[in-house]
Amino acid sequence: MSGGKRSKEDGTTVMGREMGEIRGWLRGRHVTVGGVTVCVMLAVIVCVADLDLIQYMPPTGSDGPEPARSEKTDVPLSPVRPKGVHRQSTMAWRSSASTNTRLVEALVRHDVIRSEAVAAAMKAVDRSLFAPSEPYLDAPVYLGWGATISAPHMHAHALEVLVEHLHPDAKLLDVGFGSGYLAAAFAVVIGDGGAGAVYGIEHIDELAEMGRANVAAWQAKTDTPHATIHLSVGNGWDGLPGAGPFDAIHVGAAADDVPASLFDQLAIGGRLIIPVGPDGGYQELVQVDRVDADSYSETVLMGVKYVPLTQTPQAQLDRV
Questions:
Q1: Per the UniProt record, which residue ranges are transmembrane (predicted)?
Q2: CATH number at residue 26
Q3: How far apart (Å, rounded) are the C-alpha atoms in residues 149 and 64?
Q4: 4 and 294 Cβ atoms separated by less than 8 Å
Q5: Which of 62, 78, 89, 150 is catalytic?
Q6: Domain span at 301
Q7: For the chain, where are the E strands, in sequence order?
Q8: Overall number of domains in the chain
């Protein structure tokens, strides 16, 4: 990565008990039922918890941690972790709801959504206006043109990581706005009480047209105050230098490294989140905070799987 001095944070918080601690606690524990010592269930828990690759490496074409098999999972599973890198672990699952409100409530119950502002924004932006099928399933949905709308829990993660930077005068850049869902949700968090605005960039003409139509349909239905939304066609690797600097930048596709232009367009004190890693390989969701004019702090949040941030429309269409 380029763009000045950077430091990597190793002390990120793990939600719940680390699996290593849980395994240590379980070791040697037996339960006696009717004179019979039982330890099979504990062994099953440990074995399932060790299937990290299944939990955090979904099939090609999807993005974000793959939801697990049960909505009622109470033990957080650790992501695949290379030696020396400590990442924040989050609970993931596969859940389905009948309404947008119930979907958001499920994310709140499982502590994926932790702030009132994010819960309110996700309730105000009904996913059914942006996902072509199964809008209330906590899983990515294919949009066409080699793109997906991320799973709701990944939208929640993105909003939570950036929420403290989304004040009424904030400017946010959404690189690869796709369906337009997050652009609308970011706009709700920022609100209409200041000069804040959301800028989105997408390099597939048809996808950008769909995203604009989705946002327009939502705006026609909502009475929720929100910041102005500007959606344009262009190369996400270049950002939008004429509109910056940005208090927050969200990138919805994976790059081998953070584009230098996005470093430059991040305001001092601002925050950027981007999936980093090769297409089809190991990827991490990385948080970059700009400390001053020349310094950046980098934190690895979790292992993920995203479609690539391609530099030309044809490169993305070739993947279809």
A1: 31-51
A2: 3.40.50.150
A3: 10
A4: yes
A5: 150
A6: 5-317
A7: 5-9, 31-33, 36-38, 141-144, 147-149, 171-175, 197-202, 228-233, 246-251, 266-276, 283-290, 295-304
A8: 1
Task: Tell me whether residue 150 is one of the annotated catalytic residues.
Answer: yes
Q: What is the rounded CA–CA span in Å between residue 76 and residue 79?
A: 9
In order along its 320 residues, the chain shows pLDDT tens digits of: 545 555 554 433 333 333 333 333 333 444 344 444 434 333 333 332 322 222 233 333 345 443 333 333 232 322 333 333 333 334 444 566 899 999 999 999 999 999 999 999 999 999 999 998 999 999 999 999 888 999 999 999 999 999 999 999 999 999 999 999 999 999 999 999 999 999 999 999 999 999 999 999 999 999 999 999 999 999 999 999 999 999 999 999 999 999 999 999 999 999 999 999 998 899 999 999 999 999 999 999 999 988 888 766 555 555 55
Overall size of the chain counted in residues: 320
In 3D space, the residue among 158, 96, 167 whose CA is nearest the CA of residue 131 turns out to be 96
In 3-state terms, what secondary structure has residue 156?
helix
Instruction: Kindly state the tokens that stand for 315.
Output: 């490169």
